């Protein structure tokens, strides 16, 4: 090996840099452990401790110091599945942005195109593209995007805007730019919010040009609070309100009208008159509380007063709201109330007649107008702070700009004169509706009060300061992981990594002796380099990422195995140790096989990185980095030790007494039994396809959408009992399985998955708690059941939600990823081997392997004791199987090519091919065996959440080894012409 000194220099330099990069992770971990010890389980105290030392020096290298914040920025970050926390993908409503840009145009073509785009948007298609397609189809050239009543309005006129002379193509460019600016604006607003949320190292990033924004909040524990903070548009408005005595007659009339359509029995009870009396006189204790035959009035659980029309149960708000929006009901409004806007207040709690606390929501009627514009918007607010009101209760004070101060003085003056109220509305929810008792309020200072706690006022002030989102931000995908589950994942990952490392190292020593020791040293250096690169890139380590690292340990020795096996062959042919080593490291020795095998592996890993997201991208990252570092250490680091041994004239044989005779006299006629292997594979393929067509696959929520909860109980639980209980409240959509231990269930439902907004999430969580709390001992509150906290043992330990649109995107990406990987690798093999038959044989083997794995999953998912869902993790496993199947096939094909192109083998064509396959058995079995050992360890110790993922790879590696020998090679031989066979025979038997 030339330039050994240079390679040593770079290896030492790289090792020192890696140690330097990893030192920050060790220091950060120590400081965080100190914080945990200091906080003694109090997360707020722990956070304050870390904040307090953020700017203090915690790492002294002698020549420079680093503060904790600087150390934290340079550490290897743990993903949510290891750290615990909340991960959401927000979809900025491009539809709302387009409406805003078009100034809420009433143009029928425009509005029909918006509706059609929503209905017909294809998987992975951007909404704006779907809108442009729909607009072209609906307008048919008769209406232009640049029409004055659509996008050529005052809002978009001027420089870089739209004028009515533009073509649709020109207008589309401007509209796309404006939509992108809106998403950028939303990104900035969300960044300001999460920076003040109080978690360490939050992450926010835009996902391409889809209008989607990923937000990760490691360590966040209050699920509902975090989701509310992220999805709130902060659309602050100030509305004048109607009082109960002004709108009460309408409610009575609406109630009477609804009896004709909603009540089957014609019976009318006298309670209606009492109810109206209560509504109009603000009496709280009356006979109106008795239940009657009244669609609206019977749902009032407590009478209101002033601007509050009544208090209703949260479960009735959707029904009552639907009634009040019906056209046949709204015609009953008085002429001057025609544009009344009915909205709900912030949820509160009441005590019923028995003293039990119940949830309640207030109903308000706002004084709307033709344009549905509030008397004042929140755009005039320049600052907001959490404070306390005159009663000492948490509140939010706001300061307005000059224009807002003037408008506020006019609005409060009118309210004072008319003795009316002003509703402070945030995101269509009334937070308070105070009256004005001391005259107009000047100076632009106002206050939002209500039933707040301190964290709510902090968050509210935060979102008001950060500004409003340009459009609704819907949570279309979310993952919540408790810190206890994260620690279990770390423990499982660490155990599987250590055991895997030990087994691989032991096998290399047993099989290759001293050379195996050198491979193990190279493996250790490889892990150092791998973690050093991850740290320098600021990568996020996830559980699949740990799986990628463990897999790297299996593949790291592959190159050594190929080189060592080649060296053994050269030694058997009579070459000296130095000549054998030189030949084995040459291009005609092992290097061609190593390069071809790893390029195919890198290509499939690249596809996985491009199409994967979240943890899967982390898996691809570690896998790709691991391939590169493994190549360097296997080829160069191990070679340094081998050359050192040769220079000292020490013995090196690449075998031990245990392995010296393995495969040395192995002669098996692989092509002779090809009819049997073809028949076996054909039967497996037919059975698999039949099962896929009839039995299908257990598609996870990644592919079909839905909600998944991992719930732990205090003792073993009956699956069928829970399934029956939840099926009733989730409209029959409840799948319940044991997940790992018999006191842990995986609950999947599609209930309300298409409803956006945090209210739907809270409703599902509340239903889950209400129906499962009977299985826990007393004392498990809703907050403890839903939210994460240190040491959590029971309740929801992990939750995820995938909206149908995201599921369609994921499924589309998965198809393209698998097809793309096959195509790219097939093209590479055509270029590398220069014969299409090699590529066809490899592709046939890969398709065989993929169908085999899918068939196993289709046949077995109903009775296997672990999850076999088809999700993103499974697609990652399939792509990994494709990579390893290609890897094995390339190793075999490279030797077949060598034998067919050379002249050292005699006999007929089939005999030459069989000799080539037999000569590579040791390397084929060894490379597969190390992988199988590692995967078995991960399957046993890696944890329940990745067991199905590992099982797919385990089956794939076994089947891939079989297909390389019994499918790929026979297909290669059978597709070569008879003339080619005879030509090769003539060349080899001269």
Describe the model.
This protein is an alpha+beta fold and 990 residues long. Helices cover 57% and strands 13% of the residues. It is built from 34 helices and 24 strands. Strands 7, 8, 9, 10, 11, 12, 13, 16 and 17 form a nine-stranded mixed β-sheet that branches. An eight-stranded antiparallel β-sheet has the order 5-6-4-19-24-21-23-22. Helix 19 packs across helix 20 (577-584). The two termini are 37 Å apart. Mean pLDDT is 81; it is low at 266-277 and 279-290.
Briefly, what is this?
With 990 residues, this protein is of the alpha+beta class. Helices cover 57% and strands 13% of the residues.
Structural class: alpha+beta
User: Low-confidence parts lasting 5 or more residues at pLDDT below 50?
Assistant: 266-277, 279-290
Q: Report the biggest beta sheet as strand number plus sense, adding barrel if it closes.
A: 9 strands, mixed
Strand content: 5-15%
- Helical residue percent? 55-70%
Cα shape: elongated
Distance linking N and C termini:
37 Å
Mean pLDDT: 81
- Number-wise, the strands total 24
Radius of gyration computed on alpha carbons: 34 Å
- Number of H- or I-type helical stretches: 34
Domain SecDF P1 head subdomain: 374-471
Domain Protein export membrane protein SecD/SecF C-terminal: 472-644, 792-974
Transmembrane segments: 493-510, 517-540, 594-613, 619-642, 676-693, 814-831, 838-859, 874-893, 925-943, 949-973
Subcellular location: Cell membrane
